[in-house]
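Input chain follows. Return structure tokens only.
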Amino acid sequence: MARERVRIMVEVAVMAAVATALHVIPHTTGVSAIELEWGMIPIVVLALRRGMGPAMMGGLIWGVLDMILFGLASGSVLNPIQGVVEYPIAFTCAGLAGVAYRAFQQGGPGRRRLALVAAVCVGTCAKYFWHFIAGWIFWGSYAPHGQAAWLYSLVINGGSAVVTMVATLIAVILVDRLAPQLLRKP
């Protein structure tokens, strides 16, 4: 049992590190503020492989690392409350993708595919919900003149969520087809 816990902790640390490393891949698309978050891919893989708890821990570690390495350096942390909401809280919620863990691990091919789609959608929507809230409250002053702050945040964060969701879905489906052992609980 202790050996299994160590194995899970190592997987969590590795997936959080991979998610952080993927941040250096260019990820701004179209409109300058819409971003594709490549780090969702390893978090969803972790969620389907180990469940919600380990995936949320991986998301938390990823969020803290991202805030320290990229957020603070780029000026994306406006104040402590916004920093906590947009990094540790939002990134931890990406691990809610683990809600589909049991259905994925125990289901047949059709149920597995549905669980995979659900995991990607839940994890991405949960993460970007918090970015939407922070965008509305803290970044609303960047909205074009006459546009409501909530609408600006919805467009930017909603666009980022859709782009991230599609890319993550494609990547995780490819992992499931080409290397399904990566998604199976050992």
